[in-house]
Structures are given as structure tokens and as C-alpha cells.
Amino acid sequence: MKKVAVLMGGMSSERDVSLQSGAGVLKALEKSGYIAVPLDLTSDLQAFVSQLMIEKPDVVFNALHGRFGEDGCIQGVLNILKIPYTHSGVLASSIAMNKSMCKRFVQTLGISVAEERFVSKESLKKEGIPFSFPFVIKPNDEGSSVGVFILHNQKELDELLDNWPFSKPVLAETYISGRELSVAVTDQEALGCVEIVPTKGFYDYRQKYTTVGGARHIIPAPIDPEDYKEALRQALMIHRRLGCRGVSRTDFRYDETQKQSERLVFLEINTNPGMTPVSLVPDIAKTKSISYERLVAKLVEQARCDD
């Protein structure tokens, strides 16, 4: 019987989401007959490694989200310790977490991305806005829509500048109008595409993870059949070319008013997608008759270190 340490919590702004994901994974593993133990990542790396040595897990299920858990850092530690882990390895994780770098990579595959600039509070005040309104401001290395602002006018920009929450330069992107799509991918196939319809505003952190019913998940996404196939094709290609493992989720904007070759615009890829009760990947997996428990078990059985 395999012993699985569920790595959850962590030190990022997505700690609460990770705890929710981890709690679900623990229950699923126990239901499937695994020995499952929770393991919280803290800044005391020595204590964390000592706990791993005490527990001696056969596999680590990485249910961390955000910095240190999803950016290649903990993957490197587990590679050194030679403990197999779920989800992507160091390189794919680090590139995917860096939004600007990932977009440049995706562009080489012939996939459309939003135009971007790095900005700071000072540059916005001195040089003005990089794009016409509306445009998006977001951190380059956070997930779950943490710290994302859609600015529609100068008043909203002035309010953000007065309460600037960032400690380093951030991304400004052109705003892509249209619908929100997300594709779940395993190593074998693209499982499906969902349209996310927020009940209010845009699909932010609160509606993703803290509000049951905060958004409707329409599966399969009700879009042109050829565009649906193209979304699956692009997401699977990104997963494979980036070297992702286990499962990933790729987010797009979809504007059906554009000509077909320009309707899909890549936003980002998530190498450790949420596994909470309101998460997208488990919902999509169900449409392929893959239960939550089976999805979790599949990830455990496919766990490995980087080659």
C-alpha cells in the first residue's frame, strides 16, 4: 500500500486555496486505499525535509499553488531527495509560473497572446499608460487571478496608483474582450473545454475559490465546433511542448467576433490546477467519466522525478 504525503498550504498568497485542494486530495486518497498524510510547507526547509525523512512517503502529491510550490522550487528539492511527485517538474513549472516568459514560449508555437509591457508605479506616473483603456495590470508570477486589475478609465488607474499593492514591476496587458475558456489536459489527451461565466464582474480569486456558485461552468463550452477543437489542440500542444506532466489547465479568451484564426488568445497555463469543490479540472474530468478519486489516483500512479 503506497504512502502519499500531500503537500499543501505553503507560503504563497494562494495558501488557503492549497489547503482546500489538499483536504480534498487527502479524502480521495484515503477513499482509494492509500495511506495519506498532510504535509505543510513552511520557510523552515530543514524542518520540512526532516519531516519527509520521518514520514518516508513513496510519493508526494503536490497540492501547492503559487510561489515555491508551483514555480519549480519544491520540485527541485524533491528531485534532490529522489521522492517521486505529482504534476510538472522544475523547468515546465518555472516557465509556466513566469507569465511573460511563458507567453513568449507560446508565441513560438504560433499561438496568439496579449500584447504586454512591464510597468511600475513610477513608470505609469512618468510615462503614462502603455495601452488605451481598458487594459490589465497583474503580477508576473502569481496565480489564481491574485492581484489582477482591469482598468477601464483614468479614475480607476489613479485609485490603483494611490493604493499600489506591488513591490516590483508588474505586467500591463491589452484587454482581450470575449468569453473565458479553460482546457484541462492530461499527458494523454485534452479532456475538454469549459466556459466560465462569472455571476459578477470577472473571474477573480473570490469567484474561483471562495464562492460556491460564484461562476457557472458550462461544459462543453458552447462555441463553434472547430474553435472548440482548436482550443483543445492548442492546450495539448502547450502542455507537451512545455514538458508538463500529470495534469494542467490552459486559459484562453475567446472572441467570436474576430476571424477564426484570431478568436483564441492564450492567457496562461496552470501546472498545479486547483482541486477544490469549485475547481475547473475536476468538473471537466467528470464529463469524461473520470471521478475526483480516480483523477487523484491517476496523478499518484504517474508521479516521478525529473529525468
- CATH top level of the largest domain is Alpha Beta
CATH superfamily of the largest domain: ATP-grasp fold, B domain
Note the overall shape.
globular
Total of helices: 11
Low-confidence blocks of residues: 203-211
Look at the helices and sheets and give the structural class.
alpha+beta
Distance between the termini: 25 Å
Strand portion, in percent? 15-25%
The CATH topology of the largest domain:
D-amino Acid Aminotransferase, Chain A, domain 1
The CATH level-2 architecture of the largest domain is identified as 2-Layer Sandwich
Task: Kindly provide the radius of gyration, computed on alpha-carbon positions and rounded to a whole number of angstroms.
Answer: 19 Å
Major β-sheet annotation:
5 strands, antiparallel
- Strand order within the widest sheet? 10-9-8-11-12
Order of helices and strands: EHEHEHHHEHEEHEEEHEHEEHH
Count of DSSP strands: 12
The domain count comes to 3
Mean pLDDT: 92
How would you describe this protein?
This protein is of the alpha+beta class. It is globular and about 60 Å long. The chain has three domains: 84 residues, 3-Layer(aba) Sandwich (Rossmann fold), CATH 3.40.50; 131 residues, D-amino Acid Aminotransferase, Chain A, domain 1 (2-Layer Sandwich); 59 residues, 2-Layer Sandwich (Dna Ligase, domain 1). Helix 1 crosses helix 11. The chain is 36% helix and 22% strand. It has a five-stranded antiparallel sheet with strand order 10-9-8-11-12.
